[in-house]
């Protein structure tokens, strides 16, 4: 009887499948190191893309104002006085040089309503 139990125990050890606690801890540590490296990199990429989209929106506003001055004012950037012409964003929106729902891409807020360009 004792020999039969010993055979079963020996056979059970050979047939066991799975991971030891040390192996599982090693995998968790490796994943934690990878996460510690990747999270700041991804955050930097997201911030850079927000900044780039804001710059692109500002460039679109600038280009729309230049097109407005060229088309509507005949390219006269000085106006009647010696100072530069100011073009309100609402003017660009009413004359269809810009969309009415102009938003700052990084915050999704409408920040351009009463500001001027050029």
Automatic annotation (TrEMBL):
Keywords: Competence, Membrane, Transmembrane, Transmembrane helix. PROSITE patterns: PROKAR_NTER_METHYL (PS00409). Gene3D superfamilies: Glycoprotein, Type 4 Pilin. It comes from the Bacteria. NCBIfam families: IV_pilin_GFxxxE (TIGR02532). Pfam families: N_methyl (PF07963). Its main location: other. InterPro entries: N_methyl_site (IPR012902), Pilin-like (IPR045584). GO terms for cellular component: cell surface. It is found in: Cell surface. GO terms for biological process: establishment of competence for transformation. This is Type II secretion system GspH family protein. The chain crosses the membrane at residues 21-46.
